[in-house]
Amino acid sequence: MASLLELIGHTPMVELKKLNSNPNIKIYAKLEGNNPGGSVKDRAAFNMIASALDRGDIRPGDKMVEATSGNTGIALAMIARFYNLDLELVMPDTSTRERTLTMEAFGARVTLLTGMETCRDYAEEKAAKGEAFILNQFANPDNWGAHYKTTAPEIWADTAGSITHFVSAMGTTGTIMGCSRYLKEQNPNVQIIGCQPTEEASIPGIRRWPEAYLPKIFEPQRVDRVMDITEQEAIDYTRRLAREEGVFAGMSTGGAAAAAFRIASELEQGTIVFIACDRGDRYLSSSLFG
């Protein structure tokens, strides 16, 4: 019988057959909501904590602080319990109540502040004062390393190496950085597409960072194309995924799906894989499915 942490990864991929009518193009969603913590962030959270423990950066009983928009915080809160780590999570006060309650259910303390940039500043300042250890997912190579070691190899194996386009929302950029490294090593012709919100859009889980806050792990040359996604596009595809394909996911997944189908409209043939980042039940108190 596997332990909970051993269940992280090995998520299924589902082919979208109702939304896609072109038989020469395959579009797959990798269902990261099937991770035990409910999102793709389980992978990075586990790798960051396990690697920090292995290096001796942290020890059981230590205090940690991390800024998060939600999914990383939930994953960290779940995994921190296994290692007896005292965790404070700092999150924007616009986050859905489900996220805060889930983090607290795992035993984390949650601090709500205005804006993600403010949350990041708070966590980094607290760590700089020596009050807690920060993993800093935005600058931690163990973030993208999780996807290099697990996510991308799974995608390559499940498509039998036929993938032509990989699509991911960009937040911390860990998923796209790790997957780009691995997939390009297997086939340099695989196209890596990142999604960011348009200037006026607010899409939970996808960010358009000010230059000063651009994640340090992000290497723009590893992304072949960046697509701007409108808020309405993300909402529409999130709802269509649920109603037409039975894929119940959050708004960042809708954004990635919008990009995947935009790419499909430009191709004669190909195999497109996009990341379905989390589960839709984390957004039920919002208007997303209303």
Describe this structure in words.
The chain has eight helices and nine strands. By secondary structure, it is an alpha/beta fold. α1 packs across α2 and α7 packs across α8. The chain starts with 12 loop residues before the first strand and ends in a 14-residue tail after the last strand.
Low-pLDDT segments: none
| Strand segment count | 9
Largest sheet strand order: 1-2-9-6-7-8
Global geometry = globular
C-alpha Rg, in Å? 18 Å
Order of helix and strand elements from N to C terminus: EEHEHEHEHHEHEEHHE
Tell me the number of helical segments per DSSP (H or I, 4 or more residues long). 8
Overall pLDDT: 95
Query: Biggest β-sheet: count, sense, barrel?
Result: 6 strands, mixed
Strand content: 15-25%
Offer a few descriptive terms.
290 residues; alpha/beta; six-stranded mixed beta sheet; three-stranded parallel beta sheet; 8 helices; 9 strands; 38% helix; 18% strand; globular; TrpB-like_PALP
